[in-house]
Amino acid sequence: MKRLLLPLATLFVVGSLAAGPLNAQDGPTTAINGRVTNGTPDADIPSGIDVLLRVGLDTELVWQRTAVTDESGSFSFLEVPSDTRYAYAFDVTFEGALYRTVVEDGPPGEDVEIVVYAATASIDEVSVREDVLLLPRLLEEERRLVAMEAVTIENTGTRTLVPDLSSGVSTMNFLRFSLPPNAVGLDVRTELLDGQIIEVGEGFALVVPVPPGRHQVLFTYQLPYNGSSLDLERSFPFGASIYRVLLNQELGQVVGKDLVDMGPTDLGDLAYYVFETTELDRGAKASIRFEGLPAPSLLQRIGDLWTENTLIAIPVVLGGALVIFVAFAVLWRRRRQLSVVVDEDGEFPKDRAATVRAIAALDENFEEGEVSANHYRRRRDVLIGHLRKFPPDEESDGDVLNSESAGSDGAREQGKRG
User: Fold this and answer.
1) What residues does each domain of the chain span?
2) Percent of the chain whose pLDDT exceeds 70
3) Which helix (H) or strand (E) holds 404?
4) Global pTM exceeds 0.85
């Protein structure tokens, strides 16, 4: 299964579409001004462009309006709901690319600037700065090596790459990533906006606009193996300034003439072999072999060593492109936290009893220290408001409403201490 997930900052926008708008007309309002500028030298001022403003509270859409830029690229919104709990997302589509600026914790205190770029179909300025392959564990029953790959893409030009599929995939002006021939269970996550995944040869492609600057792509997959070894060959359509491979030392050894042994390193509680190569040209290939892979009797013990804390510890040790692992660890954690408020389809519990269970789960998460005080207070308020939409039921409600004040007061007190 292949999935393209949106970045963390856009989650409330996606959820808001399913949840429906709240009534925010009776609260305080403010005016928001801004300007759309063109970051491409000597390019036209983006006048007559729609700017969509969405105001969100967690998973709900509070308010949205569209403004049009004038001849200077300026825009304004009047009577915008103002609340420090709200997040404000500004969307602009320009020459086929979506640009988004998000302001959290209340309306912006100054004029908003949204930078767009002229479009190009040329991919010549796009390259891979760093490609990091992390192999932390094995799956016991399937005898598969789990792989996490973090790639830093850089557009060194002054125009946004906008892929054009009107002539089919033969133009190849989009991001392409190779995979081992036997890879299964691909899951792709990226901070780039408004894209799709397509299969290309022995790998996949992201058909997504790529603005100037550096951008992160994370994908995970599994590598089945027989016996005690696995040969891995990778190609690099865009080359790579650095290609680094890290193997959990509990799993085996690394043998590869194309990569240099950089010595071991510790990530959290695990020790890793580190091999890398540099300055790979476009279309280059690199081969590596993993030997001494465990038999099934050892797999469960190794799998138990892998925790989320290990994921978080990675960038502390290595830095660089591995910061992406933190970003997506936060994304995964936040999706788990949001699951007590909305389901996998981004919708609220369907009835009063389900809402009460969601509140109870949130209370338990807070008591166990799994969510912050601010997170707990905001999401509990949302769920309590949702609960009041249903007819009262003392039997199903239990102590939820009775503990509302105490729970909120406790969260506020902890928030002050934090």
Assistant:
1) 4-117, 126-323, 339-417
2) 68
3) helix 404-417
4) no
Look at residues 169, 214, 220, 221 and name the one whose alpha carbon lies nearest to residue 192: 214
Tell me which residue of 226, 218, 252 sits closest to 131, measured CA to CA: 218
CATH number of 126-323: 2.60.40
Q: What is the mean pLDDT of the chain?
A: 75
Could you tell me whether strands 253-255 and 144-155 are parallel, antiparallel, or unpaired per DSSP bridges?
unpaired
Question: Thinking of the domain 4-117, which architecture would CATH place it in?
Answer: Sandwich (2.60)
Strands 213-224 and 184-190: antiparallel
Cα separation values, 239 from 128, 153, 235, Å: 6, 11, 8
The token pair at 354 is: 């389900």
pLDDT at 401: 56
Question: What pLDDT, in 10s, does the model give residues 139-167?
Answer: 867 788 888 999 999 999 999 999 877 65
Q: What strands, in cross-sheet order, belong to the sheet with 60-68? A: 60-68, 50-57, 87-94, 97-103
In degrees and rounded to multiples of 5, residue 29 shows phi and psi of -130, 165
Rounded-to-integer distance, Cα 64 and Cα 349, Å: 24
**Residue whose token pair is 């792709």:** 188
Hey, is 138 helix, strand or coil? strand
- Could you say which DSSP state residue 295 is in? P
- Helix/strand/coil for 13: helix
